[in-house]
Structure formats: structure tokens, C-alpha cells
Design a protein that fits this description.
The chain is α/β, with parallel strands linked by helices. The protein has helices at residues 18-25, 38-51, 62-73, 87-90, 95-100, 117-123, 150-163, 174-181, 185-189, 215-227, 236-248, 253-268, 292-301, 326-347, and strands at 6-7, 55-59, 78-83, 103-107, 133-140, 166-170, 194-198, 209-213, 273-279, 282-287, 304-305, 307-308, 315-319. Strands 2-8-7-6-5-3-4 form a seven-stranded mixed sheet, with helices on both faces. Strand 12 (307-308) and strand 13 (315-319) form a beta hairpin. It binds pyridoxal-5'-phosphate (PLP). Residues 61-63, 66, 87, 140, 170, 172, 198, 209 line the site of pyridoxal-5'-phosphate.
């Protein structure tokens, strides 16, 4: 058997547990496009109730649920206000523009992961033939691991009401925010019309996301899912994993956050490293000495995978998740320490 890699690249690498696989194997299924899959129905009912929304729809990915939401809120020639580094602007292939004829209006994020609502207000276009029609505000929570302040979510809701904008939460990791604040997910979801959640990140399902919101919007989103090729047949096998994740894997995120804090603390003690931030299950570091690439390769040689360079520039992102235990976190700290000691020896 090959040695297990301690994979800190993302929480998307989590594998289904034995118990989750059991739930998938015993799930009753049917043709969901014909409305026959009992496990999909159970999942969608459970997810909607958990978020305090009328309806929910199971989707193939977070990218798909975000796009379905934007297309349900906006039509051709409309626009959505969104963060410059937001997933549903920068990391989804321009889907809203490509497939929906919907223009993004990006704004810079503030340091805490929020969008400044004064800047958002200034970006709203007057109703005029020259402009796209501003319809929607998209917020991301968590953003790069940052759990947005709860008071901010309330101010977003008030703002959207006053400005007659719809609101969408890209809550791929919204459960991390809920666990961080020690609140139920519905307390976050209540501030937005639609919410998209990933099941295949820290929650540990192999595949799947969902979109929750008012019945009319989810009905519209369901049509777009079919158009986007996301209608699936005996998909209850996948929804069973999602249901298992929502029922069993939410509180475990607290352990991931504790591991990130532990990792951040351990690395802060090293003079060669600057810890940029520790936010929920993510640790961002910069190295003050040596090459990021060499560190990355050294770690890989010792069975540890991290994301470096790529869109993180000179930074390294370390993401904790349910497939990494406390012992492994300690090993990671030790190996990073060893890297600097061995490279110091090579220089002298
Ligand atoms: C992961 C992620 C998504 C969706 O990603 P998929 O890989 O399409 O499931 C959306 N938004 C954010 C913030 C994410 O981190």
C-alpha cells in the first residue's frame, strides 16, 4: 500500500468515509429528471429545512449552483455586483457572461472579506438605456477562509432591500462560517435570497453542491440546471453522501479549525516564516528565506502536499480537513522546521 499523503492543498481532497459509502450503497434511487428519486427528494427537503428556505436543489458542483442562481436572478443584459477575487466572478470561467449574457460588476474586497456597501451603492447603474441593469449582489462566505461578521450580513440584507437588489451567497464554505460563529447555518442563510453550499469540501462528500432559496427561484434554477447539462438520473447515490454529510459532518469542522490554529501557531514560532493569517480551516504563510518551490518539493518528498505559487503568488496555502489528524499536523510543522534546518546546513 502506498503511504498516505498529508494533503493540505484543499478540503476538496476529502474522501468519502466508510459510513458515507454505506449510506450511498443503501440509498433508494430513481430517475430524478422524472422526479422519481426518493433520496434526492429527501436530501432537497432536508437541505431546505436546514437553511430555513422554501426549496433546495442538488447540483453537480458549486460552480453550477452559482451559475444557476445568477441566471435565475438575472436575465440577458442584467448585471451582478461581485468581488474581484470572488469565485463566482474570477474562478468560474466567466460562465454568467458566456452562458447567461449577464455582466459582472466586480469590486475590490475589503481586508475582512466583505464588500464595502458604499462602493456597491456607487456601482449600481441608473436605469438608463446606456447601462446594464443592476439586479444582484453576490457575497462570498467564507472568503479565503474568512468568516464574515454577522452584523455585516444584516447590513447586506438591509442594503439589498433598500436598493431593490436580489442577493446571493456563495456559501461554498458557509458551514465553516457557521461553526466558527457557533450558530446554525440558517442564521447565515436568512440574510440572502439564495445560498449555494458545497458538500464536497470540508463536509466530505465525493461530489455535489446545492442551491437553496424561494420556491419560484429554485424552480427557475431547476430549468437552468437542465439546460446546463446538470440533470442527473439515479443521482440519489450522490445525494445520500450529501445527506450523510449534512447530518454527521458539520460539527467536525470545528476540529479542522482547531488544527489550522495549531498549524498557524507552530509555524509562527519559526523565524523563516510569516503567518499571513489563520482563518477557519485555512492558513496562509509566506517564507522569508529560501524558495517556495523548494519547500513545496521538499514537503512532497516527505509525503505532504501544499498549494504554492499558482494564484497564491509567493504564498503557501494550507487547508485543514477531516482526513488530517492532530498527529499529522504535528508532522507538517516538524517537516517545515527540518526543511529550514537542512537548507541552512547546505548554505553554511
Ligand atoms: C469551491 C468553491 C466553489 C465551487 O467550486 P466547485 O469546484 O465548482 O464545486 C464556489 N465558491 C467558492 C468560494 C469555492 O471555494
Amino acid at each position: 500500500m502506498t503511504k498516505k499523503v498529508i494533503d493540505l492543498r484543499s478540503d476538496t481532497v476529502t474522501r468519502p468515509s466508510h459510513a458515507m459509502l454505506q449510506a450511498m450503497m443503501s440509498a433508494p434511487v430513481g430517475d430524478d429528471i422524472l422526479g422519481d428519486d426518493p433520496t434526492i427528494k429527501e436530501f432537497e427537503k432536508f437541505a431546505a429545512e436546514m437553511l430555513g428556505k422554501d426549496s433546495a436543489i442538488f447540483t453537480t458542483s458549486g460552480t453550477q449552483s452559482n451559475l444557476m442562481a445568477i441566471m435565475a436572478h438575472c436575465g440577458r443584459g442584467d448585471e451582478y455586483i461581485v468581488g474581484q477575487q470572488a469565485h463566482c466572478y474570477k474562478w468560474e470561467g466567466g460562465g454568467a457572461a458566456v452562458l447567461g449574457g449577464i455582466q459582472p460588476q466586480p469590486l475590490d474586497f475589503e481586508a475582512d472579506g466583505t464588500l464595502d456597501l458604499n462602493k456597491a451603492k456607487a456601482a449600481i447603474k441608473p436605469y438608463d438605456d446606456h447601462h446594464a441593469r443592476t439586479k444582484l449582489l453576490c457575497i462570498e462566505n467564507t472568503h479565503h477562509g474568512k468568516a464574515l461578521p454577522m452584523a455585516y450580513l444584516q447590513s447586506v440584507q438591509d442594503f439589498c432591500q433598500a436598493q431593490k437588489l436580489a442577493s446571493h451567497l456563495d456559501g461554498a464554505r458557509a458551514f465553516n462560517a457557521a461553526v466558527h460563529h457557533g450558530i446554525a447555518i440558517r442564521n447565515i442563510a436568512q440574510h440572502f435570497d439564495t445560498v449555494s453550499i458545497c458538500l464536497s469540501k470540508g463536509l466530505g462528500a465525493p461530489v455535489g453542491s446545492f442551491l437553496a432559496g424561494p420556491a419560484t427561484l429554485i424552480r427557475e434554477a431547476r430549468r437552468w440546471r437542465k439546460v446546463l447539462g446538470g440533470g442527473m438520473r439515479q443521482a440519489g447515490i450522490l445525494a445520500a453522501a450529501g445527506l450523510y454529510a449534512l447530518e454527521n459532518n458539520v460539527q467536525g469542522l470545528a476540529q479542522d479549525h482547531a488544527h489550522a490554529a495549531m498549524l498557524g501557531q507552530g509555524l509562527e514560532a519559526l523565524e523563516e516564516i510569516s503567518v499571513i493569517g489563520v482563518w477557519t480551516n485555512m492558513v496562509f504563510i509566506e517564507i522569508n528565506k529560501g524558495s517556495v518551490r523548494e519547500l513545496q518539493q521538499y514537503l512532497l518528498d516527505h509525503g505532504i502536499a501544499v498549494l504554492a505559487g499558482y494564484h497564491f503568488g509567493n504564498k503557501i496555502r494550507l487547508v485543514t480537513h477531516r482526513d488530517i489528524n492532530t498527529e499529522e499536523i504535528k508532522q507538517v510543522i516538524t517537516h517545515i522546521k527540518d526543511f529550514f534546518q537542512s537548507s541552512a546546513k547546505m548554505v553554511s
